[in-house]
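Sequence only, no structure available. Ideas?
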Amino acid sequence: MNVYLDILNKLLPAGWMTIKILVTAAVLTYLIAFIAGLGRVSQFSSIRTLTMLYVELFRGTSLLVQMFWIFFALPAFGVEFSAFWAGVLALSLNYGAYASEVVRGAILAIPKTQTEASIALNMTRWQRLKLVILPQAFRIMLPGLGNNSIELLKGTSLVSLITLGDLTYRGLIIQNTNLSYTVPVFILLLILYFIIALPLIIIVRRLEARASKGVAKA
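Reply:
I predicted one. Tokens follow.
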């Protein structure tokens, strides 16, 4: 038990770094997701093409390679990020691409009759989007965005490979200094990642429950 407590005390400071990475990356991820998702359904073909290229590029290549490119390769072109921002940027661009498809799919799932009705009421395109389409689409997005958040948390472990001292990085250092700690280190890592993920799961379920209130069931 003393071994577990000793390792836990060493891991906890790194846990705060993981949470910091998660929160920062999540904000950027969903900002990117909504911008790209709306871009995919834009009336302008140039915007649709640009956002499609972004989405397919970041969905079709490895997150780890993207992270290495941002941290190790971009400085050769005069663009340099700290390990923290390189990790956050790679996570945000990658998971933002996946989440943008959730946004796009939810918007396209809204019946066209809703748009036609709002046009009949003389609403502008922005008013239709803000008052009619997005409120309904948001309910459809929630499960997908919730899953994306959990995947984002798991993806934060890759920042350890660009020297950022998150939970995984600290755990590997502890394990490498004493191989007899291997089992307790990875047991505690599993528990700590689950503890961090649990509030995300609860929040998403409550949001889904709240969003479904007043919605007629088929």
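The domain at 2-212 is CATH 1.10.3720.10 (MetI-like fold).
Hope that gets you unstuck.
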